[in-house]
């Protein structure tokens, strides 16, 4: 980490010069809002008030509850990266930017009555009370590898959720949020690229461990598996996207399969990674085939 501090300083300066200031309140259609039941004696929420389909609604709930657990992620990253110097400055900047995402998505969902606000709040409480514990290992290299992939996965999920919503306002909002996630991914990806140059074998092992055990940070959300199936069937985030749009581009950027500086466990880890990617690609193709068969059967019944 001492050797990488100059890289962090450089990437932090690049990020600050690239990131654009934006304001969550400007992306919310406040004119659609009205009082809810409770102390203000407004109108209770009901499903027909939502203009979203089930797939977009479930995706936005997962995206928001994931963003809600920011205190846990801050703790995990601060524990790994530390709170001193450029490392600490980055951790705090990242946290401040990420906090906007939960603010804007919740405001949009509440104002547009897209989801049940009582159920959403109860789900938030349960999810945050459960806390967050990283499943990818607690070393610096494991942490940096994980966020390189996770930030890109979140960007893909946010962008596709916006498109699936059918609401231009929602799509604009999620595109703005995804732009933040992309800049965060670039920071972590460049940081790990430098780590590969300094410690190629150890970094390769961390990359492989993370890819093989990868889980989205919201995996502890109540009903996550069911929601994930709905989201995958809608093509918002599925195995094919995870393989083609998240893992492969980052690994290609790092040049992991072209490196000539690996030995011993580094070589072994790269072989494991190649084998895992092959299995994931096959599983993605199988899922796509079955999904198309289900869609064809459904279309035939409706026709």
TrEMBL record:
Chain sites annotated for binding Fe cation 2: 98, 151, 181, 184
- This protein's name: Acyl-ACP desaturase
In terms of PANTHER family, this protein maps to:
ACYL- ACYL-CARRIER-PROTEIN DESATURASE-RELATED, STEAROYL-[ACYL-CARRIER-PROTEIN] 9-DESATURASE 7, CHLOROPLASTIC
Q: Which residues bind Fe cation 1?
A: 67, 98, 101, 181
Q: How does it assemble?
A: Homodimer.
Entry-linked SUPFAM superfamilies = Ferritin-like
Q: How is the cofactor bound?
A: Binds 2 iron ions per subunit.
- The yes or no answer to whether the keyword Lipid biosynthesis is present is yes
Q: Which family does it belong to?
A: Belongs to the fatty acid desaturase type 2 family.
Which biological process, per GO, is one annotated for this protein? fatty acid biosynthetic process
Q: Name one Pfam family in it.
A: FA_desaturase_2
The cofactors named for this UniProt entry are: Fe(2+); Fe cation
Enumerate the CDD domains for this protein: Acyl_ACP_Desat (cd01050)
Q: Does the keyword Cytoplasm apply?
A: no
Alphabetic keyword roster: Fatty acid biosynthesis, Fatty acid metabolism, Iron, Lipid biosynthesis, Lipid metabolism, Metal-binding, Oxidoreductase
Its Gene Ontology cellular component terms are: cytosol
The species this protein was found in: Actinomadura rubrisoli
